[in-house]
Amino acid sequence: MNQLKSIETLPSFDHIPIVEDMTRDIFYKEYVNKGKPVVIKGMASKWKALNWDTAYFKSKEKGVEIPIKVGKVSEGKREKMLLSTYTELLDEHEKNLRMGLDSEIPGYLHDIPFFFMFPEYVTDITPFPKELFPKWYWPEWQNYVQFFMGATDSLTPLHFDTLLTNNLFFQVSGKKKFILIESDQKKDCYIEGWRWAKFDPRNPDYEKFPNAKDLKIQEAVLGPGDILYMPPGMLHQVHGLSQSISFNIDWHTAKSARKGVATLWKGAPLKNVYYNFLVYIGLTLRIPAKKLFPFYKSYLNYIS
């Protein structure tokens, strides 16, 4: 069965608000402080990165192998390969889909610290709206980026971000669909372990998960240059509507970091508490991020 059909039959839900541009004051007053998601347009419209494609990355091959997730994203199994090899596999997959042929997704480049590994690409995403982040992150914001490249019909199952951080997600190339559920409905999503949900909103089984019938589900479709803000704890399932490139930054305010530390008493992994504590003391004691990053950077692998 052609995998494009599963994308075409996704259910539709209420759309979250969309705004043109954003000031720092409005962002915090209307969205961060109120815990409301929003799609922001216009703030990345001048990026050279909006022209990124697989050919661009092939031309810049440096011989560095990167981890590609294979199988279920939630299981975290990875295989290392050259970026040029992976992009070749992506192109072949998309060609097969266009021809109506069966094609297996060639893994997912998921959650890697791309700009920390390859800082030369940072110039392609300027001017960067760092004003949307707490000033503590400003000097070396690129170190906190997690990068994604994937095929049509790539899927990240329903989950919430492990540190209960705020999340700014930047769509660079192609389209993705986010299915969103607010954090106060977590108990009705049948969480397994710490953050992955058993319930699948794209194919709901209400006999197996009866409490999910009452969920209020929202969605956002992102195209090139769109930015999605998700507040702490918001559950999200992510669908690749096309071959796409994107990245996000998980970040804390002092308030969200304090709540993250408190998850020690809610069953969070001890590593989560450690990383949240590092950011909390940085934000509250004004310890520069560059002094704490050597202790924090292992999170960039832990998250994936």
Q: Gist?
A:
The protein has helices at residues 4-8, 24-32, 54-59, 83-98, 114-117, 254-262, 270-285, 289-296, 299-302, and strands spanning 14-15, 18-20, 38-41, 65-69, 78-82, 109-112, 145-150, 155-159, 166-173, 176-181, 191-192, 196-197, 217-222, 227-230, 235-240, 244-251.
End-to-end Cα distance:
30 Å
Biggest sheet: strands side by side, in what order? 2-3-14-9-16-7-6
Query: Percent helix among the residues?
Result: 25-40%
Radius of gyration: 19 Å
What's the number of extended β-strand segments?
A: 16
Counting H and I runs of at least 4 residues, what is the number of helices? 9
**Mean pLDDT, nearest integer?**
93
Query: Helix- and strand-based class?
Result: alpha+beta
The topology string of helices and strands comes to: HEEHEHEEHEHEEEEEEEEEEHHHH
Beta content: 25-35%
Low-confidence stretches: 1-6
Largest sheet: 7 strands, mixed
Name the overall outline. Answer: globular
List keywords for this structure.
304 residues; alpha+beta; seven-stranded mixed sheet; five-stranded mixed sheet; 25% strand; globular; disordered N terminus
Plain-language structure description:
This protein has helices at residues 4-8, 24-32, 54-59, 83-98, 114-117, 254-262, 270-285, 289-296, 299-302; strands at 14-15, 18-20, 38-41, 65-69, 78-82, 109-112, 145-150, 155-159, 166-173, 176-181, 191-192, 196-197, 217-222, 227-230, 235-240, 244-251. The protein is an alpha+beta fold and 304 residues long. The strands form 4 sheets. The chain has a 7-stranded mixed beta sheet with strand order 2-3-14-9-16-7-6. It has a 5-stranded mixed beta sheet with strand order 1-13-10-15-8, with no helix packed on it. The protein has a two-stranded antiparallel sheet with strand order 4-5. A hairpin with a 3-residue loop joins strand 11 and strand 12. It is globular, with a radius of gyration of 19 Å. 39% of the residues are buried.
